[in-house]
Amino acid sequence: MILREKKLHESGPLGVLWKLQDISIPSLRAQDGTLSQAVKIIMNSFYGVLGSQGCRFYDPRLSGTITRIGQWLLNFSRKFIEKEGIRVIYGDTDSLFVHLGEGELKTVTQIGIKVSKSLNRYLKRDLERQFNVESCVDIELEKIFARFFMPTIRGQDTGSKKRYAGLLMGKDGKPELFFAGMESSRRDWTALAKDFQGGLFELLFSKYDAPQLKDELVSTASHELRTPLSVIMGAIRLVLDEIPGKIVAEQREVLSMARNNVQRLSRIINSLLSVSKMESGGLDLQTSVVDISKLIKDTVSDYKLVAREKGICLDCEVPQETVNIRLDPDRTVEILINLISNSLKFTPEGGWVKVICTKQDEEVLVSVQDSGVGIAQEDIPRLFDKFTQFGRKAGPGEKGTGLGLVIVKKLVEMHNGRIEVESEVDKGTTFNISLPFLVEAEAEGLSEETDEFIESILTNN
């Protein structure tokens, strides 16, 4: 790759390398994919032979030298490009990916060509100065992506090696979907799965923005999963009830585990559908005038047994008088259940959970308090994000979906209310819900209008 004089190596193994180079560079520039791939295979085979002990030119330093030279060249190029004020986002064995920002295809292309030419000149001068050798390396702009996606390595912020997808810009300015590594990450994929992958990325890169695409996919997948899950659950119940025949204890244990996981998946799907309906405006509140004091007492009463089994004291404090407010009773119960069950889950044995309702001038305040493990202050701003589950470690039993508080917040806002959180680690958490108290006047006005309407009918008759 780096040699003093080309003429000294016109014969022997290095002469072959020069001939391959003379073929490969023009083929790359002409975008002759077949010829370029053929040269790549020959060169890989060539180095494979040189690295074999049966080769008379074998030297154990060869493979390591090739690898180190490649790494050195990438690091050299990265430093130069970053000095030019251009961000390098990824580098693999023979390529660097840089972010050139937004701009017309022609402008971006000119920047890429200019950078590659400057890099070649700088590399040539540096090699001559340091090692007194001639550089035969030809670094050039290869591809331009209008959109680019690279999955990160699990648990890290860096990209995974040679796995990416992008919207590749052709010379005619037309975009083309390009995959590297991702399409073969699962060799057992069917044609349908690969078509789905291609369609997914076409949507991601062109028509839809990522959040909208994600929400639509989640909604569609959730709908499609409900029916097969119902069938699976029905089959498991039949076997557990021993309708097809007797089962042994070990089989019952495995089937019970399967049933519990199917039930949890069903809860996740139902929660996803609820969130999807709320976000799309497809969920309507069925409001009526309700005594919220009684609603709270009844809901707390339903969870007394659960709390007692966990060794937790569950209680409520509500006004003695009737507190009428216009709301959707079923959705309000859903709010209370989510918050109470959450508090019970994260409160240790011997702790307490309390629901308090107070009537203020223009609002009804409902607080769900607990003496549980609490939430760190830095986590509170993200508490109502989807699938958020922080360091609050629940004990054995039912696991959360990470959607309960998302649903709670959206339902409260649909009632024109607001929700706030106060928490301290190892001290407990309080969720405060404020609902507008405008309903008594509406209810009284409605009743008066009804009376007048009935009176007018009776008078006319």
Tags for this model:
461 residues, alpha+beta, Helix Hairpins, Heat Shock Protein 90, 5-stranded mixed beta sheet, 3-stranded antiparallel beta sheet, 12 helices, disordered N terminus, disordered C terminus
Summarize the topology.
Elements: E1 2-3, H1 12-29, H2 33-50, H3 61-83, E2 87-91, E3 96-99, H4 105-131, E4 134-135, E5 145-149, E6 164-169, E7 175-180, H5 191-207, H6 210-240, H7 249-280, E8 288-291, H8 292-302, H9 304-309, E9 313-317, E10 324-327, H10 329-345, E11 352-359, E12 363-370, H11 404-414, E13 418-424, E14 428-436, H12 439-460
Parallel strand pairs: 9-11
Antiparallel strand pairs: 1-4, 2-3, 5-6, 6-7, 8-10, 11-12, 12-14, 13-14
Description:
With 461 residues, the chain is an alpha+beta fold. Helices cover 51% and strands 16% of the residues. It has twelve helices and 14 strands. Strands 9-11-12-14-13 form a five-stranded mixed beta sheet. Strands 5-6-7 form a three-stranded antiparallel beta sheet, with helices on one face. A hairpin with a 3-residue loop joins strand 11 and strand 12 (363-370). The chain is elongated and about 95 Å long.
Strand content: 15-25%
In sequence order, what are the helices and strands, one letter per element?
EHHHEEHEEEEHHHEHHEEHEEHEEH
Global Rg: 34 Å
Low-confidence stretches: 1-11, 394-398, 439-447, 457-461
Mind telling me the CATH superfamily name of the domain at 288-442?
A: Histidine kinase-like ATPase, C-terminal domain
CATH architecture of the domain at 288-442: 2-Layer Sandwich
Strand order of the largest sheet: 9-11-12-14-13
Average pLDDT confidence is 78
CATH topology of the domain at 288-442: Heat Shock Protein 90
Determine and state the CATH class of the domain at 288-442.
Answer: Alpha Beta
Query: What fraction, in percent, of the residue positions are helical?
Result: 40-55%
Largest sheet: 5 strands, mixed
Q: Which structural class do you get from the secondary structure elements?
A: alpha+beta
Can you count the helices? Answer: 12
Q: How far apart are the termini? A: 107 Å
Overall 3D form: elongated
Counting DSSP E segments of at least 2 residues, the number of strands comes to: 14
